[in-house]
Structure formats: C-alpha cells, structure tokens
C-alpha cells in the first residue's frame, strides 16, 4: 500500500512540474500586462497620473500622494539623474485628446531604492518630486494611504488603475 501511495505522489508531482511553469518559491509569476479591465468613468481616479517623455510619450503611470510627490515604479526611470525629458500630467482622463482638467508638471527629482537594478528583483518603486505643486480639485486628489501597521486580508479586493489594454489583442 505504501508503494502505491509513493508512486501516486510522484506522479502528481511530475504532472505539476510538467504543467506548471517553474518560478522562485514564494514569488508569484510576473505577467507583463493586465487585461480584462474596463474604461474608467471621468474623475473616478483623481490620483492617477500620466508620466511621459519627450521622445516616447506615455511611459508609465503614477499616483499622487501629496501636493509635490507622486509614487511610481523605478523601472520608469532608467537613469533617475536624467529627468529633463519627463513630464507628469495630472487631471488627465484620456491619453490622447482634450483633457479640460489637465495640468503638466516637470520633475525636480526621482528617488529610487539604493541598489535598485531590475524590476524582477524587487524594490521597483520610485518617489517622484514635482517641480511645481499640484492644485487640488474634484479631478486632482491624493490617494489615501494606509498606516504602516495596517494588515490586509489575503482575500481583500483591490483596484489597479492605469492606461493600457482592457482586452487581450491590444484594444
């Protein structure tokens, strides 16, 4: 009986290895995009910003956390010391077209974790200091951040915002 149980266990492990993709223990498989979203109603996410460069246009999104600071990802700034071509747009609903509540802000500096090299290795976070303060309105607000000691349940739902494809295939 023990022999059959051992064979069954080995078979299940082999099937799991064959069907699954190998990844580092404790780290979820990283996907390069999010699909299945929906278009946001106007003004629904007043803390969402659009980060662009002169040469590339839209490169990343970010989140307003105060009048002068935006939270984004370190990989958006390959050289955080060279930010002259970057612009942050707040109050923006559409990437293309007219946005009546939009204002643009140059970046004063970008702060990334010491030793950050690759988003796959973690620490993919950046604090972006704006050269000018944002002005609060119905369409421009900071996100509410939790206190450091708050614990979230594993089944808690969250929302991710940004500009991208809402369907697989590029729409």
Overall description:
The protein starts with a helix and ends in a 41-residue tail after the last strand. It is an alpha+beta fold. It is globular and about 40 Å long. The chain is 11% helix and 21% strand. The chain has a 7-stranded antiparallel beta sheet with strand order 5-4-1-2-3-7-6, with no helix packed on it. It has 1 helix and 7 strands. The chain has one helix spanning 2-19, and strands at residues 48-53, 57-64, 69-72, 86-90, 103-105, 107-111, 126-130. It has one domain (1-171): Beta Barrel (Thrombin, subunit H), CATH 2.40.10. It holds the Pfam family Trypsin. InterPro entries: Peptidase_S1_PA, Peptidase_S1_PA_chymotrypsin, Peptidase_S1A, Trypsin_dom, TRYPSIN_HIS. This is Zgc:92313. Residues 34-171 form the Peptidase S1 domain.
Quick tags:
171 residues; Thrombin, subunit H; 11% helix; 7 strands; seven-stranded antiparallel β-sheet; alpha+beta
Chart the SSEs and their pairings.
Elements: H1 2-19, E1 48-53, E2 57-64, E3 69-72, E4 86-90, E5 103-105, E6 107-111, E7 126-130
Antiparallel strand pairs: 1-2, 1-4, 2-3, 3-7, 4-5, 6-7
Structural class: alpha+beta
Report the CATH topology name: Thrombin, subunit H
> Domains counted in the coordinates: how many?
1
Please trace the helix and strand order, writing H or E for each element.
HEEEEEEE
Q: Specify the number of helices.
A: 1
Instruction: Report the helical percentage.
Output: 10-25%
- Order of strands, main sheet, comes to 5-4-1-2-3-7-6
Distance between the termini: 55 Å
**How many β-strand runs?**
7
CATH architecture: Beta Barrel
Beta-strand percentage? 15-25%
What integer is the average pLDDT? 82
Biggest sheet architecture: 7 strands, antiparallel
CATH class: Mainly Beta
Instruction: Round the Cα radius of gyration to an integer and report it.
Output: 21 Å
